[in-house]
Protein backbone atom coordinates (compact mmCIF):
# COMPACT_ATOMS: atom_id res chain seq x y z
CA UNK A 1 0.00 0.00 0.00
CA UNK A 2 2.87 2.39 0.65
CA UNK A 3 3.59 2.28 -3.08
CA UNK A 4 0.03 3.35 -3.87
CA UNK A 5 -0.86 6.07 -1.39
CA UNK A 6 0.85 9.05 0.22
CA UNK A 7 -0.28 10.86 3.39
CA UNK A 8 -1.62 13.85 1.44
CA UNK A 9 -3.89 11.50 -0.52
CA UNK A 10 -5.91 10.76 2.64
CA UNK A 11 -8.95 12.87 3.57
CA UNK A 12 -10.40 12.27 7.02
CA UNK A 13 -13.75 14.11 6.72
CA UNK A 14 -14.74 14.76 3.14
CA UNK A 15 -17.97 16.71 2.87
CA UNK A 16 -20.35 16.01 0.04
CA UNK A 17 -23.96 15.19 -0.57
CA UNK A 18 -23.79 13.16 -3.78
CA UNK A 19 -21.67 10.61 -5.57
CA UNK A 20 -20.87 13.16 -8.27
CA UNK A 21 -19.69 15.75 -5.74
CA UNK A 22 -17.53 13.19 -3.92
CA UNK A 23 -15.89 12.14 -7.19
CA UNK A 24 -15.33 15.78 -8.18
CA UNK A 25 -13.73 16.57 -4.81
CA UNK A 26 -11.51 13.51 -4.95
CA UNK A 27 -10.52 14.33 -8.54
CA UNK A 28 -9.53 17.80 -7.32
CA UNK A 29 -7.37 16.26 -4.58
CA UNK A 30 -5.75 13.96 -7.13
CA UNK A 31 -5.06 16.96 -9.37
CA UNK A 32 -3.32 18.82 -6.57
CA UNK A 33 -0.99 15.87 -6.01
CA UNK A 34 -0.51 14.60 -9.55
CA UNK A 35 -0.72 17.76 -11.64
CA UNK A 36 -3.20 16.13 -14.03
CA UNK A 37 -6.32 18.04 -15.08
CA UNK A 38 -9.17 17.33 -12.66
CA UNK A 39 -11.69 17.25 -15.52
CA UNK A 40 -9.77 14.38 -17.12
CA UNK A 41 -9.74 12.50 -13.83
CA UNK A 42 -13.40 13.15 -13.08
CA UNK A 43 -14.45 12.24 -16.64
CA UNK A 44 -12.62 8.89 -16.41
CA UNK A 45 -14.24 8.15 -13.05
CA UNK A 46 -17.71 9.18 -14.21
CA UNK A 47 -17.45 7.10 -17.40
CA UNK A 48 -16.48 4.07 -15.30
CA UNK A 49 -19.38 4.76 -12.93
CA UNK A 50 -21.79 4.73 -15.89
CA UNK A 51 -20.76 1.13 -16.60
CA UNK A 52 -21.91 0.11 -13.12
CA UNK A 53 -21.57 1.36 -9.62
CA UNK A 54 -18.27 1.11 -7.79
CA UNK A 55 -20.19 1.04 -4.51
CA UNK A 56 -19.21 -2.50 -3.54
CA UNK A 57 -21.33 -2.78 -0.39
CA UNK A 58 -20.75 -2.46 3.31
CA UNK A 59 -20.52 1.33 3.08
CA UNK A 60 -17.54 1.13 0.72
CA UNK A 61 -16.89 2.46 -2.79
CA UNK A 62 -13.82 1.83 -4.92
CA UNK A 63 -14.08 4.22 -7.87
CA UNK A 64 -11.30 3.73 -10.39
CA UNK A 65 -10.18 4.84 -13.80
CA UNK A 66 -7.36 4.91 -16.29
CA UNK A 67 -5.72 8.29 -16.78
CA UNK A 68 -3.57 9.41 -19.71
CA UNK A 69 -0.33 10.99 -18.55
CA UNK A 70 -0.17 9.10 -15.27
CA UNK A 71 3.02 7.08 -14.90
CA UNK A 72 2.10 4.77 -12.00
CA UNK A 73 -0.94 3.46 -10.13
CA UNK A 74 -1.99 5.89 -7.38
CA UNK A 75 -4.60 5.67 -4.64
CA UNK A 76 -6.60 8.21 -2.65
CA UNK A 77 -8.76 7.55 0.40
CA UNK A 78 -11.61 9.54 1.90
CA UNK A 79 -13.75 8.96 4.93
CA UNK A 80 -16.96 10.89 4.34
CA UNK A 81 -18.36 13.24 6.94
CA UNK A 82 -21.85 11.92 6.16
CA UNK A 83 -22.70 8.73 4.25
CA UNK A 84 -23.73 9.33 0.63
CA UNK A 85 -25.92 7.33 -1.75
CA UNK A 86 -23.45 5.74 -4.17
CA UNK A 87 -25.99 3.39 -5.74
CA UNK A 88 -24.09 0.58 -4.02
CA UNK A 89 -24.91 -3.02 -4.77
CA UNK A 90 -26.38 -3.47 -1.27
CA UNK A 91 -28.25 -0.12 -1.45
CA UNK A 92 -26.37 1.03 1.68
CA UNK A 93 -24.91 4.56 1.71
CA UNK A 94 -21.13 4.86 1.41
CA UNK A 95 -18.83 6.44 3.97
CA UNK A 96 -15.45 5.00 2.91
CA UNK A 97 -14.14 5.79 -0.58
CA UNK A 98 -10.92 4.36 -1.96
CA UNK A 99 -10.11 5.96 -5.32
CA UNK A 100 -7.68 4.19 -7.62
CA UNK A 101 -6.09 5.79 -10.68
CA UNK A 102 -3.97 3.88 -13.17
CA UNK A 103 -2.00 4.84 -16.27
CA UNK A 104 -4.01 4.50 -19.47
CA UNK A 105 -1.84 1.60 -20.60
CA UNK A 106 -1.70 -0.16 -17.21
CA UNK A 107 -2.65 -3.80 -17.28
CA UNK A 108 -1.84 -6.20 -14.48
CA UNK A 109 -0.62 -3.45 -12.12
CA UNK A 110 -4.05 -1.83 -12.12
CA UNK A 111 -5.82 -5.15 -11.50
CA UNK A 112 -3.36 -6.14 -8.76
CA UNK A 113 -3.88 -2.81 -6.96
CA UNK A 114 -7.66 -3.14 -7.25
CA UNK A 115 -7.51 -6.67 -5.84
CA UNK A 116 -5.27 -5.54 -2.97
CA UNK A 117 -7.65 -2.74 -2.02
CA UNK A 118 -10.66 -5.05 -2.29
CA UNK A 119 -9.06 -7.62 0.02
CA UNK A 120 -8.16 -4.94 2.53
CA UNK A 121 -11.66 -3.48 2.63
CA UNK A 122 -13.38 -6.87 2.92
CA UNK A 123 -12.10 -7.03 6.50
CA UNK A 124 -15.01 -5.65 8.56
CA UNK A 125 -12.78 -5.08 11.61
CA UNK A 126 -10.36 -3.05 9.51
CA UNK A 127 -13.21 -0.93 8.12
CA UNK A 128 -14.43 -0.31 11.67
CA UNK A 129 -10.91 0.88 12.55
CA UNK A 130 -10.95 3.26 9.57
CA UNK A 131 -14.31 4.64 10.70
CA UNK A 132 -13.04 5.12 14.27
CA UNK A 133 -9.65 6.66 13.42
CA UNK A 134 -9.16 10.08 15.00
CA UNK A 135 -7.53 11.91 12.12
CA UNK A 136 -5.79 11.79 8.75
CA UNK A 137 -2.52 10.58 10.26
CA UNK A 138 -4.23 7.65 12.00
CA UNK A 139 -6.01 6.75 8.77
CA UNK A 140 -2.75 6.82 6.83
CA UNK A 141 -1.04 4.61 9.42
CA UNK A 142 -3.90 2.10 9.23
CA UNK A 143 -3.79 2.05 5.45
CA UNK A 144 -0.02 1.65 5.16
CA UNK A 145 1.05 -0.34 8.20
CA UNK A 146 -1.10 -2.75 10.15
CA UNK A 147 -3.34 -4.60 7.72
CA UNK A 148 -1.86 -3.38 4.48
CA UNK A 149 0.94 -5.93 4.66
CA UNK A 150 -1.61 -8.71 5.10
CA UNK A 151 -3.56 -7.65 1.99
CA UNK A 152 -0.57 -7.74 -0.36
> What coarse outline follows from CA principal-axis ratios?
globular
SSE string? EHHEEEEEHHHH
What kind of assembly state do the chains in view correspond to?
A: single chain
Provide the CATH superfamily.
Answer: Mannitol-specific EII, Chain A
Helix and strand content put the structural class at alpha/beta
Number of strands: 6
**Distance separating the two termini:** 8 Å
Low-pLDDT runs of 5+ residues are none
Sheet with the most strands?
6 strands, mixed
Q: Output the radius of gyration.
A: 14 Å
State the domain count.
1
> Could you say what the CATH architecture is?
3-Layer(aba) Sandwich
Topology diagram in text:
Blueprint: E1 10-14, H1 19-34, H2 38-51, E2 55-57, E3 60-61, E4 64-67, E5 74-84, E6 94-103, H3 108-121, H4 124-132, H5 136-146, H6 148-151
Helix pairs in contact: 1-2
What does this structure look like?
Helix 1 crosses helix 2. This protein has a single domain (7-151), classed as 3-Layer(aba) Sandwich (Mannitol-specific EII, Chain A), CATH 3.40.930.10. The N and C termini lie close together (8 Å). The chain has helices at 19-34, 38-51, 108-121, 124-132, 136-146, 148-151; strands at 10-14, 55-57, 60-61, 64-67, 74-84, 94-103. Helices cover 45% and strands 23% of the residues. By secondary structure, the protein is an alpha/beta fold. The longest helix is centred in the N-terminal third of the chain and has 16 residues, at 19-34. A hairpin with a 2-residue loop joins strand 2 and strand 3. The chain has 6 helices and 6 strands, in the order βααβββββαααα. Strands 1, 2, 3, 4, 5 and 6 form a 6-stranded mixed beta sheet that branches.
Amino acid sequence: MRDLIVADAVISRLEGTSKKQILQDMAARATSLLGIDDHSIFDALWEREKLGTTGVGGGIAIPHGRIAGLNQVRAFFARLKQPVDFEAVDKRPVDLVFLLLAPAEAGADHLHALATISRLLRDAKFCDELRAAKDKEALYRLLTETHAAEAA
